[in-house]
Structures are given as structure tokens and as C-alpha cells.
Amino acid sequence: MYSVILKTATKYLTPLMLLFAFFLLLRGHNEPGGGFVGGLVAAAAYALMVISYGVKTARKELKYAPLSFIILGLSIALISGIPALLVSETYFTGLWTEMKFPVIGKLGTPLIFDIGVFFLVIGITTKIIFTLAEEDQE
Amino acid sequence: MLIAVLSGIIIAALTPLIFRVMKEKASLLLSLVPVFLFAWYLSYYNRVANGEIIKEVSEWIPAMGINLTFSMDGLSLLFALIITGIGSVVFFYAAAYLKHDKYITRFYVYILFFMASMLGVVTSDNIFGLFVFWELTSLSSYLLIGYYFDKESSRKSALQALLVTGTGGLALLAGLILLYIITGTTEISEMLAVTGISSHELYTGAVILVLIGAFTKSAQFPFHFWLPNAMAAPSPVSAYLHSATMVKAGVFLLARLNPVLGGTEFWQNTLLIFGGTTMVIAAFLALKQTDLKKLLAYSTVSVLGTLTFMIGLGTETALKGMVIYLLAHSLFKASLFLIAGSIDHETGTRNVSQLSGLKSFMPFTAFVAIFAALSKMGFFPFYGFIGKETLYDAVLKSGSNEILLFSAVFIGGAVSGFVAITAGIKPFIGRTIETPKSPHEAPLLMYAGPIVLASAGFIFGLLPESFTGNIVEKTASAIAGTNIEYTIKLWHGFNLVFLLSVVTLVVAYLLYRFRTKFTNISIASGVGDFIKPSMLYDKSLSMMISLARGQTRLLQNGYMRYYIVLIVSTALGLTGYVLFTSVDMSVIDISFDITFSEVVILLVMIAASITAIKAKRRLSAIASLGVVGYGVAIIFIMYGAPDLALTQFSIETLTVILFVLAIYRLPKYLPFSNTTLRFRDFIIAAASGVMMTMIVLLVTSEEMVSQLKSFFAENSLPLAKGKNVVNVILVDFRALDTMGEITVLAIAAIGVYALIKLRMEGRK
Amino acid sequence: MIIMLAILVGVLYAAGIYMLLRRSIVKILLGLLFLGHAANLLIFTVGKLTKGKPAFVPEGGELVEPFADPLPQALILTAIVIGFGVQAFAIVLFKRAYQTVNSDDIDKLNSTDSLERG
Prior knowledge:
Distance between the termini of chain B: 55 Å
Mean pLDDT of chain A: 85
Radius of gyration of chain A: 17 Å
Oligomer: heterotrimer
Low-confidence stretches of chain B: none
Distance between the termini of chain A: 16 Å
Largest interface: B-C, 101 and 88 residues
Shape of chain A: elongated
Number of strands of chain B: 2
Order of helices and strands of chain A: HHHHHEEH
Largest sheet of chain B: 2 strands, antiparallel
Number of strands of chain A: 2
Helix content of chain B: over 70%
Strand order of the largest sheet of chain A: 1-2
Structural class of chain B: mainly alpha
């Protein structure tokens, strides 16, 4: 599966896919997108890397272990529910700032939750793909 | 009070950690828990003694009116003090008794858990809270009886106790629900105010179910057999759960519900008959026992019968006598069990006939044992004496059938005395017999606690009113449901009751003196043998097992497709039956308003499905399935679901990659099935496909109004500041569900990793 | 348009069940995939179809009917992602099974937990 064309294409595609993934994540609250899709697209970028360059390179490019992403994602998601408790609302009640940002719109805890989902999805998908690919290489 | 209950559970969870840090000292530290709780409950004493009922409500399931309500009156406080007080003694005792045991950590986890649950039972005011704690005590009792899990008899007894008390627990739940239906409230304190309970049509049912729950727990006839078997547990457990606390939960329940359900002939007579029968049968069974712990266990069953009997008698004196006797019994029986444990620990045997003359080797233990035994015999001036006198007094004044009732109580009393002599005095006096281990005094921790309990029995006896007057009065009032004024006195003068009390002692001594003859007669005549409810238990258990085995062999033969055929054809049969008999098919709207693009997608997807099924190579099958998946995504786009389409596209791509990575290197398919089989499967599959199509058509032709749809549409922007309603539902309205979902995903990923990693490491 | 999706749901269910009845484990996995698609489409279809109108609140206005019901969509989105997790696990499980018994035949797997006779 190691072809030059695929390698070259991957080199240019992956940054674009990652960028697109972030874009999907941030606009998800108002337009099609969100943490799940964003995470999946980002993970697909690394899957592409696995196919064209092999697992080792993909792992290096991801920088942190997939498991850290899973833990990070779950923690962010869990923590995003806590601010509501501080103002004595039920867990996971959305809280919002009044300021508006481009693309994102207003900033609030549901967005943080979505970011948690995003990282978690990246984590689990790359974990599964890397594990399978590594085993395949042996 | 919630915190007092929860603290036990929390500390139980921390116990392994505490043991890791503190090593051997951990058990001493943990023993301070019941001591602190005892002090804490004691701080309520004055308020309760003044007649106050302390209540605490924490919301649990407010929508259904179920709250964790705790209340403390005399009855609750008395039990809480017994639980924590005897708990303190038992915890310290176990620190020495199980010192070299491998699983001592587990012991403390279980017993802390038990103590917390038991405190929950006696302080809960809500019937459902009470039920939950009730079941937790059964569970922790199971774990504790099965503590020596490497012995088959232990496991068997544990299971028996769990099944008997668990079945009773189910009956209790049903009874409590009936009670809720009758009274309309889940709080016991509110039930007291409801009138006309006994004339309700569900009353008899509720009483029977509640009684089954209480009788199984308190080992009343015919459920008594589990308790002697539970002696497989370590001695501290027998002392704590199976004499002083858990087995009294049933009696507690009867006492607690007496003002709600009591006062009818049905209630009183049932308690009298079952309590009395238990008292007498257990007494006869006790005569035959040679094992110290079994002897004490049968005696405990007999006492539990007595307590039930006294509630059934129901007069003021009877209730007071019951409370005094209950307290006295907890003190002396726990001591005797602990002493039996010490004897076992130091001599290596529990066989009464092999034990004699230990007093020179174990002077302190002997001293405590004799104190406890005297209290149990009802010897002047011990607390047990007052208990026995009040019982006799109550029976003689009961007003009907005095002679019959008294002879029952008398038999119970005499045998209780016999057991006291045999278990508490006989092992220590007389000439020395050789024992498996050469005996020596038990460690300080193992007799210090019993000394406290036994001297409490002595001091309470000397000064009954100042130490126990208030609490006995308030407890009896709580059981009666009316205010009872009472002063306890040690000495009532030389009257009929005292005379009978003395006669009891004489008979007890005679029983002991001629025990060998008596035992032989009892075995020969088979008294107590003719009724064997445990046989019924064994029979029904083995029947259940063979039934399970039979149906497993029939339905689960190990071939997955057989299961699937069974499941699918059952679903087909049942759904098909409903579809064809009771559904009007004419409502189905079959209008072919299909556009060209839809037809194309439909055809492509069907073609891809067929290719995936018929493909000879795995890769082409996977590719065809990919086409089906993309087709689904296109359908999502066409019908206003861009989010789904995006997700479906990315998932489909990743799935194909996964498949390729996993099965790229596998050889070609091998044909496994023949044409006939394939035809059969095709028929089943096609039929279910047709059924699903029908269902879809039927459901969609119904008019459906969803309030949720408009709710989410209207509130998405104002409440959640998002325009993408689907995303808003996922991350805001139903964020907790999504949280659960991503947790599942994380677990799946870890599962994948574990499956592969284990193998890779296994190879190295 | 409903009739087309109804037929499609039927076909996918039939395909899924047929594949589940095979002896080859890979085919069983494919059957699971089929059933996943079928179930998602089933929920989607019975949740009422609305052509081309996704549930997005327009700029400065309110959502007016007709628009697609967002609730089944949220459910399906969850189902798709969970389905992926399950499939990944099933694929790996299959792979391990294949390595252990060296065969694609599911009948080779039932010796480990066969019923104790007697």
C-alpha cells in the first residue's frame, strides 16, 4: 500500500482535514457539525497517515498517546457539567457568556462538552486503528 | 442520621486502603468506628428519653414520594445502640480472632457494610428505604457466612441463608407495596395516623407477606433451618449478625409495624402461634446439639420465637418484657458466642463433650462465661432475671389459655437455662480433658469485650431503672403505639412468678444433669426430626437446578444460528399474529410518489446488498457494504439530516479501513453451508424483512404528534443558544446521555486494546 | 417516498438476518453492519420524514413547519457512533478468535463453553 502518490496526497490532505475537523467542531452548535463528526474527521486524517506512512509515523504525528486523548476528552466532558452545580442548577445545565465570537457564536459549557466529545472520539478511533495496525505489522 | 449510615459504607470502601497503609493496626483503627457511632447515637439518648422523635429527610426519588427519611424513637435508638455497642466489642474481638487470617481486610469491609445497612434498617422511616437496607443486610450476611469460601459447607450455608432471607425479602417488598396501596403513604410515621387499615381488603395479604419477610429473617418456624447452618461463619459474625443484630431485624420489623398492622386477632394469633411453635421446636432441637455454636444457635432461634410470641401477646407487660429480654439476650448471647469462639480458637474443638475443666487455663474467659451464663439462666440479680420474670408475669396475666401459653414459655426458659449451663459453665468446671490444642488464655482483646457485655448485664440487673428505664419505656411505647409508663424493678417479692422462676432453674439443672439420657431419648424418639422444612428447601433447590439444566440443554445448544433462528421466528410469529389478527391493514397508505433519484438510490443499495451477500471474496463484500452505508448517508441528506449524513460518511470510511486492517490477510471464504440450509435461512430472513416493511408502513400511516419536536425547536435558541437543534439536543438538553455514550465508547476502545495487547504480551 | 424506505428497511433487515445465520464469522460481522444500517433507517423513517428541511433555526427567526424532527436524528447519531464502537470491538474479537482457532468457522468456537452433560 506504500505508493508515492498516496504519500504526497496525505502530506497535503492531513493538515486540511485537521483544520476542517476543528471547523466542524466549532460551528457545530449552529451549523451541521459538532464534536462527533469533527473527531471522526480528525481521526480519519490519522487513519490516512497510517495507511500511507505506517503506524509509527502516525503515532509520532499525534504527539500524545490515544489513551491520553480519551482521558482528556472524558475529563473535559465531565468537568463541563460542574459550573452548573456552582450556581445550584442541575448537573450539565448549559451556562453561557454574553459575548459573541465569530464562527462559534456565544461561548458556553455545552461547547466545552462538545470539545470533550471531540477529543474522546479522536482518542478512541486512533486507539482502535493504531492497535489493529500495529498488530497487523507483527 | 444519613451520615451515620453512610459513614459505615464509605469507610468500608476505604478499608482495603487503610489496611495497606496501617497493616495490622488497621483493624484496631476500624474498631473505633462503631465506638464513635455508639457515642454519637448515645448523644440522642436524652432527647429520645424525653419522648422526642427525631426526624431527618433527604430527597431520594422525590417524584415518587420516596425519600430517605430517618427517624429516631426509643425502638430505633435501642437497636442502634445494640448494633453499635455490640459492634464495638465484636470489631475489637475480631482484630485478635482473625489476626493471622489472610482475608481479614474483606472481613472488615463486609462487617462495616453490614453495620451500616443494619443501622439503616432500624432508623429508616420510609418503607422503601427500609427495604433496601434490609436487602443489604441479607447480602452482607451472605458474604460473611461464606467468609471461609474455600469450604464447601460454608458456601452452601451462605447460599441457603441468602435464598431463604432473599425470598422473604421479596415477599416483604410485595407486602410493603400493599401497605403503601392501603395507606397511600410510604412513611411509617404517617401510616400510624391512617385508620381502617385492618378493614381494608388487602390487609390480610399485606400481613401475610410482611410476616413471611420477618419470619425468614428472624429464623421463625418453618424457616428456622438456615440460622444453625449459618454457624459456618467465623464466631464474631455469629455473635454479631446471627444472635445480636441481623436476626433481630425480623423482630424489629414486627415491632415497628405492630402499631400499624397490629391489634387484630389475625396478627396477634399468627405471631403467637408461630412464635410459640418456634420457641418450643427450637428448644427441643437444642437439646440434641453437641457443637457449642449450634447449641447456641438453636437457643437463639428459640429466643427469637419468644420475642415474636411476646409481640403476639401484645399486652403492656408482654411488650415491656419483650424489650427487656431482647436487650438482655443481645448482651449475654453475644458474649457466649464470643466465648465459644475463644474456646474454639484456643482448644481447637467446639464439641461440648470434649470440653471440661478449662477454668484453670482460661480464668478470665471462664469468669465472663459464667457471668453471661447466669444472666441467660435468669439468675438473680442479673438483667436476664428481670427479663424472664417479666415474661412469666405477662403470660400469667394474659387472660386466656394461660396454662398452654405458660408451658410453652416454660419449656423455652428451661432449655435456655440448660443451654447456658452447657455452653457457659460446663466447659470450665470439672476435670480436665485433653483437647486438640493445648489450651491457654485468649488474648486480652478477646475477653475484654465480653467482660464489658457481661458486666453490663450485671449492672443493668442491679440498677435496671436508672440505666434502662427510660429507653425500655420509650421502646415499649413505640411498639404499642401508645404511651406506656413503667418502672423496672429487680425484686418483686416472693410471689408465684419468682417460684416458677426457681422451678425453671431446677428443671434446667435436671436437664443438664441427665442430658446424656435425655439426648438419647430425644434422638431415639426423633422429637424435632419429624418436621424437616430444610428438606423442602433442598428438594426445591435441586428441582430448580434440574429445570434450569433441562431448559438450557433444550434452548441453548451452543450454536449461535440456532439461537438467532429461535429469536427471529418467535418475534416473527408473535408480531405476525398481532399484525394479521388485530391490526387493520387498510390504513396503510401505498402511494408511489417516488422521484427518479430515489429509485436510483433504492436500486443501487439493493444491488450492493445482494453483492455483499453473494461476494466470494471478503474485500468485495466489504466494499459493497460501504456502498450501502454511503447510500444511507445520502438518504439522510435527502430528508433533512445533514449531521447524520456527515457522521455516517466518516464512520463508514473508518469502518471499511478497520475491516481492511483486520481481515486483509485472511484466506478466501470457504463454503460452509449447503443449498437446503441456505434456502431455509433465506425464507426466515425474507419473512422478517417483509414483516419489518409492514411495520414501517403501518407505523408511518398513523398520525403522530410529537410535543418534543416543537419543544426542542422552540427552546433550542432561547435556552441553549444554538441553532443546530440536533447538536443542541446532544450537548445540552441530553448531555448526560451523551456522557454515558462516550463513556461506552471509551470502554469499547479499551476493550479492543486489551484484546490485542494481551495476545501480543502473551507471545513475548 | 415512505414506501421506498420501507422496502429498503425490509431488504436491509433480511440481508442482516441472513448473514447472521452464516457460519463464517466475517459474514456474521457484515450481518451486524447490515442490521445497524437497517435499525438506523427504521428509526429515521418511523420518526416522520420531511424532505430537505433540516432542523436549523434561521437567522433572527423561528423554526416553522415543515422541518425534520431533530429528536430521532439525535438518537440515530448516537446509535451510529455507538455502532462503530461495537463493530470495532466485534472485528477485533473476531480477529482474536481467528488467531486462536485458525478458522473462520463459528462452530469451531463452541467447544470452550459446551454444556456440561450430566
